[in-house]
Please model this.
Amino acid sequence: MTDAQMYARVLASDADFDGRFFTGVLTTGIYCLPSCKARKPKPGNVRFFPTAESARAFGLRPCRKCHPDDFARGADPVLESIEALVGEIRQNPAAFADARAIVRRSGFGTTRCFELFRRHYHATPAEALMRARIASARHALLTSDTGVGEIGFAAGFETLSAFHENFRRLTGLTPAAYRTLRERATTSFALALPEDYALTYLRHALARDPESRDVRLEGDNACVAARLPGPAVLRFTLSPESIAVDCPAGTAVEAHRIAVGLLGLEQDAAAFARLARKLGFARLVAHAPGLRISLTPSTFDGLLWAVIGQQINFSFACRLKRRLLERCGTPVEDGMIAPPTATDVARLSADDLLPLQFSKQKAGYLLATARLIAEGKLDLDRLAHASATRAERTLLAVRGLGPWSVNYLMMRALGFADCVPLGDTGVTSGLLALMHLDERPDIDATRRLMSVFSPYRSLATAHLWMLNRTVP
Ligand SMILES: [Zn+2]
Model:
């Protein structure tokens, strides 16, 4: 970044840049985070530093308002208090009657509390509460024999119909049907689709690589080779009202989790459509009505795409992914291959990957990241439940994962709703066409233009990708 770009972030008090640089103010002798709300220094009095240490070495003191050293140490008291609050909500959702109760408990004002939930959890307090209630009910359905109604009330639902309606919307099943997934004998179930569900995009996602070794679509029948956790094939039968799923005995809970992700059931496509229309971008939605993002079957699959897909075109990325599966995946049936685990990839060396046409750099990043996961130093599944801010910071600290890969991984595999893979040419081409821009937006302009779609920037990204192609 140039000094002018950094100064612009300082004027905007842009917290997204906290930690990426520190602002030294030569007249006062202090240094700050870009988000500092103290009076803005004149550009001539400012000097930028890459780290807090370099600012201190220059003789500057940490600001008492924005505490740059706490941030550099990884401490972030406001984030920690919101994370603790969400922890409480997840632990006992029934203790919170509604969003107002969450705001009261947070100790922040309403506007600030909503802003913090949006920034750190990509959700409103009410959405976070609803998800916590459903997760708590799911857990109780699988692990106890308590009656369904009692479970709904214990999760904080006031009426049985609200429990059923929301449970079905987010899981595709009734609570009673969900409970049967725990039986070993359950080898099939059917997910009900919302009325406005558009199968087109699920088909598109299942067929995007016609030669794929782990995902196949023929007519209304799809197969997905996955880890449940053992390598196996899931079979899907598509119809406009429901998706029937067949799975091996003893894997129904995991098969259901994968199916809900593939279908994107937890995404609020209708809310994004309303926002886009309100902003005057009805065309973006009209081009692909009901679009949802199909999540990868596992977080490690998402990581494979995020590393393999960097800086190369889609068909080449598909070829590299297929070759990797053939090299270290597990053959299942009908020529399908279950994708490798991190441990499988960690066993390889660059000499295994270079002949598959991986670049030296890509091979290095892939192996290093797979080893971090295999050694338990990076837990992608846990990050899917962390705050978005924590997930992003943790992933950005991994060598080889830049902002594009991290945000791609967060939206395609971890299920976060408000991500933009900055630097993505599909996004910038989409913005060019949608907003009739004169030139392709740079990273800063992309960030600014995309901000209007918050907290649904992941769906906005998926729509921009679609804008440049004809949906089959
Ligand atoms: Zn400050």
The first helix runs from residue 3 to 11. The chain has a mean pLDDT of 94.
